[in-house]
């Protein structure tokens, strides 16, 4: 845990990725610093891709206390770190970097925490059967989150078995039985205790167009999209009486965990939520 100072001593942090202009992280972290009285802390957004990141990372000075990583850097960073947490290692993705007092960089994954807390906000306390829609980077964290909620089996809906391979590897590492199904296998969605939709943009719209929910759904749904909200899938789910939550809740909780890791202080969740909601309302 880093040493924390509430003085004006400089502590820098940033969110990195490409594209990065849409990120809510500066709003959420900035609100946390203000509420915690961390006047010496700053948080910015830095546009970096896979080719430019390693040299930038190598040049960081001792004033840097934390990094938030988005795509495409969550895997690129791993070889540059001194260590990663067991969870980040299992998922194969790092979205947070902190430094030890000796200045050794450590990789963490707070996306899993964010997903778990988002699902719990619907009233879900545990799950046995899960369904992950999509097989990209977020799907791996989704499987880990479902494992954390007690899922013993997970269905991964994907366009192809090849795309789902890395996600199935994560499930195997965590002792979760996983199988692949087609994106049109909506019976798997209906049978799940928890459904996590990780598809982006048009792919999500195409998938949800086939989703028919007539009876109150058995499980809770997390759609990781957060703007605009609600998504078509979430609207169909909630209109039938199901519990649905969006990606903002996930983003909020993963950012709060980042604040804790970077500063050593409990995150002011209410202040961060208010700032994030205000920023989204203005988009």
TrEMBL record:
Is Amino-acid biosynthesis among this UniProt entry's keywords?
yes
UniProtKB keywords: Amino-acid biosynthesis, Aromatic amino acid biosynthesis
Q: Does the keyword Amino-acid biosynthesis apply?
A: yes
| Annotated ranges, domain SDH C-terminal | 247-275
Q: Which pathway does the database say it acts in?
A: Metabolic intermediate biosynthesis; chorismate biosynthesis; chorismate from D-erythrose 4-phosphate and phosphoenolpyruvate: step 4/7
The record ties this protein, via InterPro entries, to: Aminoacid_DH-like_N_sf, NAD(P)-bd_dom_sf, SDH_C, Shikimate_DH-bd_N, Shikimate_DH_fam
User: Which parts of the sequence belong to the Shikimate dehydrogenase substrate binding N-terminal domain?
Assistant: 15-97
Looking up PANTHER family in the UniProt record yields: BIFUNCTIONAL 3-DEHYDROQUINATE DEHYDRATASE_SHIKIMATE DEHYDROGENASE, CHLOROPLASTIC, SHIKIMATE DEHYDROGENASE
Q: What is this protein called?
A: Shikimate dehydrogenase
Q: Which organism is it from?
A: Kineosporia mesophila
């Amino acid at each position: 845990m880093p040493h924390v100072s509430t003085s004006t001593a400089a502590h820098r942090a940033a969110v990195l990725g490409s594209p990065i202009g849409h990120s809510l992280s500066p709003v959420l972290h900035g609100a946390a610093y203000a509420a915690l009285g961390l006047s010496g802390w700053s948080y910015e957004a830095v546009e970096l891709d896979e080719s430019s990141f390693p040299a930038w990372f190598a040049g960081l000075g001792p004033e840097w206390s934390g990094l938030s990583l988005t795509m495409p850097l969550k895997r690129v960073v791993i070889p540059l770190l001194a260590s990663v947490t067991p969870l980040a290692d299992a998922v194969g993705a790092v979205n947070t970097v902190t430094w030890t007092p000796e200045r050794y960089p450590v990789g963490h994954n707070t996306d899993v925490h964010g997903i778990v807390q988002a699902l719990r906000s619907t009233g879900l306390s545990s799950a046995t059967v899960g369904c992950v829609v999509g097989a990209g980077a977020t799907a791996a964290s989704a499987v880990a989150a479902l494992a954390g909620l007690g899922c013993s089996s997970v269905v991964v809906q994907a366009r192809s078995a090849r795309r789902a391979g890395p996600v199935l590897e994560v499930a195997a590492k965590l002792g979760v039985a996983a199988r692949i199904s087609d994106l049109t296998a909506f019976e798997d969605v209906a049978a799940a205790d928890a459904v996590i939709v990780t598809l982006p943009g048009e792919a999500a719209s195409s998938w949800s167009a086939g989703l028919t929910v007539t009876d109150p759904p058995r499980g809770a749904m997390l759609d990781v999209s957060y703007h605009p909200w609600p998504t078509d899938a979430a609207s169909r789910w909630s209109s039938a009486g199901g519990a649905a939550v969006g990606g903002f809740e996930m983003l909020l909780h993963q950012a709060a965990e980042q604040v804790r890791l970077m500063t050593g202080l409990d995150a002011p969740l209410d202040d961060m939520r208010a700032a994030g909601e205000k920023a989204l309302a203005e988009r």
